[in-house]
Design goal:
Layout lengths: L1 H12 L3 H5 L5 E6 L2 E7 L8 E6 L2 E12 L2 E12 L4 E11 L2 E8 L14
Length: 122
């Protein structure tokens, strides 16, 4: 099944598809007003098999599942780390998963903070 998806991607987007995006198979990063949207194609995974974590300026997406059929069983996993170009607000990150597509929306932190003035004592 994975081989069929890979063949379909190659026929639709060409051999250099991964190089143009800078991320692994099926992961796209799109800049939107005030933030980013990370879209990951993850067919065959259930929502509860997917984990998304934010570490400073990195978004880590991982998934793992076990599948079995008449031919036997197998374990499938994927992991992708996306380096974020700017600091994001960890309180304003949302994720949704529909029809095999994970979408993570991140909002850039407001960098208008001019620092904190520190009073000099005697």
């Amino acid at each position: 099944m994975d081989r069929l998806f890979e063949q379909m991607r190659r026929s639709m987007f060409g051999e250099d598809w991964n190089d143009r995006r800078g991320h692994g198979d099926g992961v796209r990063v799109e800049r939107i007003d005030g933030g980013l949207v990370v879209v990951a194609d993850m067919p065959g995974f259930e929502k509860d098999e997917i984990g998304v974590r934010l570490y400073d300026d990195r978004l880590v997406i991982g998934a793992e599942n076990d599948a079995s059929d008449e031919l036997g069983s197998r374990r499938r996993s994927m992991s992708e780390t996306v380096s974020l170009p700017e600091h994001v607000d960890p309180g304003d990150v949302t994720a949704s998963y529909r029809n095999g597509v994970l979408e993570v929306r991140l909002t850039f932190e407001n960098d208008t903070h001019e620092g904190t003035e520190i009073e000099i004592g005697e």
